[in-house]
């Protein structure tokens, strides 16, 4: 298992990953291929987003790849929090490929992301999940997450918020 950065090498595997999710919006935003007709254009846009802008905080993005060179999970690490991320998104957004769930990849990618957060010297890390996502909550708690006050959005959807000591 290894973390790799998105590149042209991963184009077909990334497309297959997204296709497996169907119309679900559970893939971290920075990994969505919606609206991109060319993967090189997506990669260029991703590099710009990673630097940060008025719409995006600086972030790092990785695929978790198994020994068969298959993307089993994805993670986006936000280097800072804006108001939205403080309430709902947190420092880390991750997803596990639907066919690869219940194999420990969620815990593994979060563990790897937390190690990257230490390298970035980010301090304590906020990780969130939908209140209905019991599996993700267990993964976060397994990695040291301590639950804080939840957030309800304008549609009354609840987001559970967890802090993980980073240091």
TrEMBL record:
Keyword rRNA-binding appears in the UniProt entry: no
Protein keywords: Transferase
Start and end residues of each N-acetyltransferase domain: 25-167
Coiled coil feature spans: none
Gene Ontology molecular-function annotations: acyltransferase activity, transferring groups other than amino-acyl groups
Alphabetized PANTHER family for the sequence: ACETYLTRANSFERASE
Name of this chain's protein: Predicted acetyltransferase
Phylogenetic classification of the source organism: Bacteria, Bacillati, Bacillota, Bacilli, Bacillales
């Amino acid at each position: 298992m290894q973390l790799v950065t998105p590149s042209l090498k991963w184009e077909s595997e990334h497309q297959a990953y997204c296709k497996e999710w169907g119309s679900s919006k559970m893939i971290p935003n920075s990994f969505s291929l919606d609206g991109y007709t060319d993967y090189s254009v997506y990669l260029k846009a991703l590099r710009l987003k990673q630097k940060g802008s008025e719409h995006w905080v600086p972030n790092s993005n990785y695929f978790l790849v198994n020994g068969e060179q298959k993307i089993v999970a994805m993670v986006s690490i936000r280097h800072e929090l804006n108001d939205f991320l403080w309430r709902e998104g947190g420092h880390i957004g991750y997803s596990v490929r639907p066919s690869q769930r219940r194999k420990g990849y969620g815990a593994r990618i979060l563990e790897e992301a937390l190690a990257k957060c230490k390298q970035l010297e980010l301090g304590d890390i906020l990780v969130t999940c939908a209140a209905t996502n019991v599996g993700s909550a267990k993964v976060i708690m397994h990695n040291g997450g301590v639950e804080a006050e939840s957030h309800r959005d304008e549609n009354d959807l609840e987001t559970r918020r967890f802090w993980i000591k980073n240091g």
